[in-house]
Amino acid sequence: MTIAKCARRLTNLAHEWLLGISTRGFAPAENRLGVHYATADYADIKCILWELNLKPTDVLVDIGSGKGRVVCLAARRRLQRVVGVEYSRSLSDLARVNVARLRGRRTPIDLQTIAAEDYDYSDATALHLFNPFEAEILDTVLRKVRHDRGDRPVRIAFMMESPAQKTVFEIHTWLRCDRRWTDRAGHTVSLYSGGSD
Ligand SMILES: C[S@@+](CC[C@H](N)C(=O)[O-])C[C@H]1O[C@@H](n2cnc3c(N)ncnc32)[C@H](O)[C@@H]1O
User: Fold this and answer.
1) Would you give the distance in Å from CA 37 to the centre of its chain?
2) For the chain, which end, N or C, has fewer CB atoms within 10 Å of the first or last residue's CB respectively?
3) Which one of 15, 30, 35 would you pick to mutate in the ligand 1 pocket, going by the greatest count of ligand atoms within 8 A of its CB?
4) What is the pLDDT of residue 136?
5) Which atom of ligand 1 lies nearest, measured to the CA of 33?
6) φ and ψ at 191, to 5 degrees?
7) How far apart are CA 113 and CA 93, in angstroms?
8) pLDDT per residue over 102-138, tens digit each?
9) How far, in Å, are 53, 94, 159 from residue 19 at the CA level?
10) 129 C-alpha vs ligand 1 centroid, how far in Å?
11) What is the 63 CA–ligand 1 centroid distance (Å)?
12) Residue 87 alpha carbon to ligand 1 centre in Å
């Protein structure tokens, strides 16, 4: 293991201890086009939350929220609401334990055990996705977001974007890419925004 990777692991462990939660590890995908559970480094998630420019009026939805790392970290900020959307019952149950244990929460957390394709995004102003599913489902979910939000603004952060997923975003011409960068773990992260104020 490189020194950099070792340092990232130690930083993640320190964050888990600080927040009082346990979100590490892997879990296999539970449907054909879903991606297995894994989570990103705390430092990279913090960077994305900062780039999303979150305000106290925002409702942030983590689509494919797994064990709740992003949800817990975001809820330590002052927002209107943080929502975790996760279709796996077992991962949602682990997220509930983490939310109950979370230290320093400043925002209400709502965990929904539901497929992202079926969630109602009407009041979601910011979305976070860490590569939860393949392009086909991404397209369905973006259509649902557009349908539920109409022309109201939404910002989207997508972590670990593949070329196929990037193509889906390009088809959704109501969204524009504001920024794209590579995080410390080598994932492509893209920030999109759409709708009007
Ligand atoms: C790579 S993990 C990301 C977990 C979390 N967002 C994080 O960053 O810590 C992707 C998650 O998406 C979930 N997922 C996959 N397909 C889904 C779907 N159609 N609806 C809701 N959740 C889904 C998986 O069960 C998994 O927990």
Assistant:
1) 12
2) C
3) 35
4) 95
5) 16
6) -115, 125
7) 9
8) 999 999 999 999 999 999 999 999 999 999 999 999 9
9) 22, 15, 22
10) 8
11) 6
12) 8
Pairing of strands 154-159, 126-130: parallel
Q: In this structure, what token pair is assigned to residue 85?
A: 């959307």
Name every protein residue with a CB atom under 6 angstroms from any ligand 1 atom: 30, 34-35, 37-40, 62, 64-66, 69-70, 85-88, 91, 115-117, 130-133, 137
Domain of 184: which CATH number? 3.40.50.150
- 117 HSE (CA, 13 A, CB side): 10
1: exposed, middle or buried (C-beta count within 10 Å: 0-12, 13-18, 19+)?
A: exposed
Q: Which is nearest to 87 in space by CA: 116, 47, 57?
A: 116
Output phi, psi for 22, to 5 deg: -135, 105
pLDDT value of position 38: 86
CA atoms of 64 and 85, how far apart (whole Å): 5
90-104: average pLDDT: 97
